Amino acid sequence: MTRRSRIGLISIVFALIIGLAIGNYLSEVKYREERERVKIELAEKDRKIEELSELVSVLQVWLEGNMTFYGEKIALLEEHISELEKQLKIRVLGIYFSPKGGCASAIINWIKRANSSIYILIYSFTLDSIGEALIEAYNRGVDVKAVFEKGQITQYSEYWRLRDAGIPVRNDTNPKSMHHKVMIIDGEIIITGSYNWSKTAEEENNENLIIIKDRDIARKYEEEFEKIWIESI
Fold first, then answer.
1. Structural domain tally of the chain?
2. Domain end point (choices 40, 60, 89)
3. Which of 71, 125, 139, 161 has the highest local Cβ count within 10 Å?
4. What is the spatial distance between Cα 29 and Cα 18, in angstroms, rounded to a whole number?
5. For residue 90, what is the DSSP state?
6. For residue 47, what pLDDT band results from cuts at 50, 70 and 90?
């Protein structure tokens, strides 16, 4: 190998060594930069995690301090929703007005449809047609009971006809007036309103009658009936 060839070869080797050294240096610089960038990102994430942890702690303390308050609010809201759901289930089966608006006929029709029970709180009751329907219901096995306002038990009152037919009837002991006009049928039908079961109410007075189907409402009316029934004689 000539001297010139050896010099060329040494130059090439030297150039390769220089290139490798520069490449390694640049790689090291890039590595350090990347490592520093990752380090900064990790530090930023650690800072955000710490901030979130502090926020969670604050929220936890706030929740613990307000849990009872909001728990009561939620309970009241759930109760209100439950009450609204019940109201949506209420069915109005009929609304009637007198004079001559079909009040008596509506009462008689529902008496005829009774299957198990008819409980009555009535102020004035003199209509024979309703009395006859009640006696028929009683004779077919329906549990019929009635409380009359004692001040309205005259010679024209249906009290005597029902009693003579074997239907349990009582007069109230309220020193004032037992002014209810209520019939509860089968624990789910309520018939009420201003309408007395009398010829005057049917043919002359301005009266109203409403028929509602709802077991919860019927239960409340039955509780009132039982209270007055027990106190009556």
1. 2
2. 89
3. 125
4. 16
5. -
6. confident
Structure letter (DSSP) for residue 152: G
Active site residue 179: yes
Catalytic residue among 172, 180, 186, 214: 186
Query: What's the CATH code of the domain at 203?
Result: 3.30.870.10
Q: From the candidates 179, 180, 213, 214, which is the catalytic residue?
A: 179
Would you call 166 helix, strand, or coil by DSSP? coil
Is residue 86 part of the annotated active site? The answer reads no
Question: Range of 46's domain?
Answer: 1-89
Same domain, 147 and 136: yes
Q: Mean pLDDT, to the nearest integer, of 65-92?
A: 69
Structure-block tokens of residue 51: 């901030």
Active-site annotation holds for 181: yes
Whether residue 117 contacts residue 142, with contact meaning beta carbons closer than 8 Å, is answered with: yes
**Which of these, 215, 155, 162, 208, lies nearest to 186 by C-alpha position?**
215
- How far apart CA 162 and CA 135 sit, in angstroms, is 7
pLDDT digits (tens, 9 = 90+) for 136-175: 999 999 999 999 999 999 999 999 999 999 999 999 998 8
Q: Residue 210 class from Cβ within 10 Å (0-12 exposed, 13-18 middle, 19+ buried)?
A: middle
99 upstream amide cis, omega within 30 of 0: yes
Model's pTM, two decimal places?
0.65
Contact 196, 125 (CB under 8 A): yes
Which of 61, 89, 117 terminates a domain? The answer is: 89
Q: Which one-letter amino acid corresponds to residue 199?
A: K
Q: Which listed residue (145, 172, 180, 181) is catalytic?
A: 181
Distance between CA atoms of residues 198 and 201, nearest Å: 5
